[in-house]
Amino acid sequence: MSDRNTTPTETTAFNVAKPTSSLLLWLWAPMLLVLSIDPLIRVFAGKPPFQATFASWGGWLILFLVGAALTVTYRRRELRVEPKQLTIAATLYTRRVALSSMRLERARVVNFAENPDFKPGGKSNGFQFPGFRAGHFHMKGGGKAFCLITDNSRVLVIPLRDGNSVLVSPEQPRALLDELRRLADGGAQA
Question: Which one of 26, 42, 154, 161 has the fewest beta carbons within 10 angstroms of its own beta carbon?
Answer without folding.
Answer: 161
